[in-house]
Amino acid sequence: MKNILEAPFLIEMVRTMTNMYRLGWDERNSGNISLLLDRDQAAQYLDLDGPGRDIPTGFQAPALDGQCFLITGAGKYFKNAQYDPADGLGLVRLTQGGRNARVLWGLSGGGRPTSEFPAHMMSHAVRLGVDPAHRVVLHCHPTELLAMTYVHSLEERAFTRTLWQMCTECVFVFPDGVNVLPWMPCGTNEIGQATADKMSTARLVVWALHGIYAAGRDLDETFGLIETAEKAAQIYLKTAHLPRLNTITDAQLHQLEQRFGVKAREGWLD
Ligand code: 2HA
Ligand code: ZN
Fold this sequence. Notes:
The chain is of the alpha+beta class. It has ten helices and nine strands. It has a nine-stranded mixed β-sheet, with helices on both faces. The structure holds Dihydroxyacetone and zinc ion.
C-alpha cells in the first residue's frame, strides 16, 4: 500500500482548505468539504473493504451505498488541516444504505464526520443524478456573499442576475445561476434535504445569512465557482451605495452565451 499522506487527492484537499482559510472563508471550525473518491485510486492507499470505526449517520443515502469519501471532521479547523491531516480529515465508506459511515482512515482523535454530513451526502446523490462526473461538495462562509444576503433580495433570479452583471466571467462560470435557501438551523437532515433539492438545478446554493454550498467535478472547479461568485459579490458591495452609471446588459450577457457556448438558466435573462 502507498502512503496516503502522499495521495494527490489528500494533498489537494489540504491545499484547498488552507487556501480557503487564508481567504477568510473558514473561520474557526466553519466550512466543510467532501470528495467522492475513485475506488481504484483510493484502493492504492487503503483496504476499502477492511475494518473500521462505525458511526451512525442518522440519514439514508442508498444511491451512495459503498462509496468512499474524503471528508472534513466535525469541529475541526481548516487552519490546522495542513499540520495534522489525519486529525482534521477522514476517509469513510458509507454502508447500510448510508445509515452508517465506516472510518477507514483519519478522524484520529475519535472525531466524527462534518456536522453537515447530511447536506453533503444528499447533495452528492442529487448532483450525481444530474452529472455522472460530479465529485465535490464544498461549504464555507465567504465574507462578501454572506454580507450580500443581508442587503439584497433573496429571490433567486434577482440574486443571480446581480452577480452575472458584476463580472463578465460569471455567466459562463455559473450559467445555471445561484439558488438560495432562506435561513434555517444548520446541521440537520432538513437543511440537508432542502440543500440537495436546490442542487438539482444549480451548482451554487446560498444559505441566506450563513454561507454557501458549491458542487463540482473536482476541487479546483468547485472552489473556482465560489471564488467567482464571491468576487462578483465584492464588486456589488463596493458599488451598491453609489449611482450605477454602467452595467452589463442582458444583450451583452446573450453575446457571452454565444461566445462561450453556454446557455444561461432558462428565463433568467430578458
Ligand atoms: O462546520 O460551517 O454550517 C461548521 C459549519 C456549519
Ligand atoms: Zn457553515
